[in-house]
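STRUCTURE:
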């Protein structure tokens, strides 16, 4: 039986999540000041409605729905960059010894990946099989490499960094699934917040029909992003 794929939620707003959260927060704060005028337009937008909206934004803030994802992603990227830098350093060491062991023999150098290294040096996914083959080749020519001055620990170091990259790759795949779930929860929460403040903004448009500056505070951007530059401005709540 095939696993059902999680359906991605579409945002009801077309600004970044954290920006929408700040915008919603400012609208709710202003609603608290203007509640009498807005309640006069729509009696359902009363003190109880304000309390509900305040609790909603409070819960979103407490969960750290924006900042946690950003920080975790940066930390994982730093770990991978560090591992890749170490992999490149170890290859440089191996290259020193295989070119010394086999001077003027590019065909053998290519067995160590000399012709492929430029393609893989910046890719975690390509680096892993590259290191696996490099380790096998070093083991094949181990005695000659040792005579050229290579330390036997180089093989172990390469195996360790390759295992670490492989483990990080597994964590990345797991992390993608977790981040997708986190994103879905974040978007669902912010969409619900959008549904809460949209009626406030519509009522405010009537309450402050003669006060353009005041009315603009309640402009709520929504809809999906458009790709064409000429239409890249957010659509305002009518």
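SEQUENCE:
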């Amino acid at each position: 039986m095939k696993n059902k794929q999680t359906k991605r939620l579409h945002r009801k707003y077309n600004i970044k999540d954290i920006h929408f959260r700040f915008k919603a927060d400012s609208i709710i704060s202003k609603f608290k000041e203007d509640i009498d005028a807005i309640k006069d337009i729509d009696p359902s937008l009363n003190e109880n409605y304000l309390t509900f909206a305040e609790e909603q934004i409070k819960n979103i803030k407490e969960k750290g729905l924006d900042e946690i994802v950003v920080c975790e992603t940066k930390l994982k990227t730093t770990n991978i960059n560090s591992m890749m830098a170490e992999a490149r350093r170890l290859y440089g060491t191996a290259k020193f010894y295989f070119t010394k062991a086999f001077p003027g023999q590019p065909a053998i150098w290519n067995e160590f990946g000399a012709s492929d290294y430029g393609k893989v040096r910046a890719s975690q996914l390509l680096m892993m099989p590259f290191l696996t083959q490099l380790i096998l080749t070093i083991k094949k020519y181990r005695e000659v490499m040792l005579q050229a001055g290579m330390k036997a620990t180089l093989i172990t170091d390469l195996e360790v960094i390759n295992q670490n990259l492989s483990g990080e790759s597994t964590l990345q795949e797991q992390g993608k699934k977790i981040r997708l779930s986190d994103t879905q929860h974040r978007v669902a929460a912010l969409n619900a917040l959008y549904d809460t403040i949209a009626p406030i903004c519509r009522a405010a448009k009537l309450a402050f029909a003669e006060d353009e500056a005041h009315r603009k505070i309640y402009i709520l951007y929504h809809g999906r992003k458009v790709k064409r530059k000429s239409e890249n401005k957010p659509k305002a709540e009518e």
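REMARK: The two ends are 46 Å apart (CA to CA).
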